[in-house]
Design goal:
Length: about 130
């Protein structure tokens, strides 16, 4: 399951893409960027594959219908690993509830009480929370 959330810093926004394993409820891959583009989603997926070395053939990857996940570039990248794609119904956040809950916990347990001077400060804090 994958999604993207945003985190404010003093220079603008940082965008976090995360891949969550529904079986373990753990974040198995993630990436942070200053732009919420397709490369961010691909980077999180790349991180998950490199860190966990799963058998990707017929592995299900669920996401919402954000432009990052519906782009041709992301589709080609998923096809390279023979992933099965699944997407939420349009405008229905409940289909992504598990990862939305992770983002909520990250923000309420750690991020909302902090002020970040820049993007790198966000990266350090998110990495500390995930690991």
């Amino acid at each position: 399951m994958s999604d993207i959330t945003y985190i404010r810093n003093h220079q603008g926004w940082s965008y976090l893409a995360a891949i969550l394993d529904l079986g373990t409820k753990e974040i198995v891959g993630w990436s942070l960027s200053k732009t919420p583009d397709t490369e961010l989603a691909m980077s999180a997926l790349r991180n998950a594959i490199q860190r966990n070395n799963p058998i990707t053939k017929n592995l299900l990857l669920h996401s919402d219908q954000g432009t990052q996940y519906t782009s041709n570039m992301f589709d080609v990248y998923c096809n390279k690993f023979k992933l099965i794609r699944s997407m939420s119904r349009k405008g229905n956040c409940w289909d992504n509830a598990v990862i939305e809950r992770f983002f909520r916990n990250l923000k309420t347990e750690r991020l909302n009480t902090l002020s970040f001077i820049n993007h790198q400060a966000v990266v350090s804090e998110v990495e500390s929370y995930i690991y």
